[in-house]
Amino acid sequence: MTWRRLAEHDFPLLKSWLEQPHVARWWNHETSAEAVARDFGPAARGEEPSEDLLVHLGSSPLGLVQRCRLSDYPAYLAELAVLTEVPAGAMTVDYLIGDPERVGRGLGPRMIRSVVRATWHDHPGAPCVLVPVPAANRASWRALEKAGLRRIAEGDLEPDNPVDDRAHYLYRVDRPATPEQERDGRRTG
Q1: pLDDT > 90: percent of the chain
Q2: Is residue 10 part of a domain?
Q3: Measured between alpha carbons, how far is 186 from 180 in angstroms, rounded to an integer?
Q4: Cβ atoms within 10 A of the Cβ of 133, count?
């Protein structure tokens, strides 16, 4: 799997993914061309600190991962801090697989695992990745578990989709220890 920053020329593809029922159920996003440009344009142009990554499997687009430092979004950080301590530099991700034919084939966990692994390199100050997921979205939290994240909390958070209740699980993965830290019995995060 590879990825690159989402660009404005990718918006028609993203729009088609957001319209897919399996995506629309959990992303609850306006799908007009104007709404996609409004909501994804700032990150694509580097005007917003989040990273929207277009993930490819081989040469074929597979999905989207949004990655950001929680401290760049103080209201979101404060909401998560009610459920758990949020270490300085913590990151979060959100994700989707666009093509319904590729759902349920183990690609979600691979995609999450790949981006999390890259996060340790791309964001050297990040001690962990925290990911909230609606408790009702079993496929999503199972993908996180298969990608190596562990459930650390559950509680009420504002749902992305107003039809959902507030019940969420919070998952975490810590930066792997360096060989020196392992030898000394220390870990980061």
Answers
A1: 74
A2: yes
A3: 8
A4: 22
Q: Quick one: tokens of 25?
A: 């159920």
For residue 177, how many other CB atoms are within 10 A of its CB? 15
For residue 169, the domain's CATH number is 3.40.630.30
* pLDDT tens track for 42-72: 999 999 999 999 999 999 999 999 999 999 9
Is 185 a domain residue? no
pLDDT greater than 80 at residue 188 = no
Strands 91-97 and 167-174: unpaired
Q: Where is 5: in which H helix or E strand?
A: strand 2-5
Is the separation of the CB atoms in 111 and 62 below 8 Å?
yes
Amino acid sitting at position 156: D
Lowest mean pLDDT among 24-28, 90-94, 149-153: 24-28
Instruction: Give a yes or no: residue 186 inside a domain.
Output: no
What is the spatial distance between Cα 147 and Cα 159, in angstroms, rounded to a whole number?
23
Look at residue 159 in the predicted model and tell me its pLDDT: 83
| One-letter identity of residue 131 | V
Residue 189: pLDDT over 80: no
**Domain membership flag for residue 16:** yes
Q: Are 131 and 93 in contact (CB under 8 A)?
A: yes
For residue 107, the enclosing domain spans: 2-179
**Number of domains present in the structure of the chain:** 1
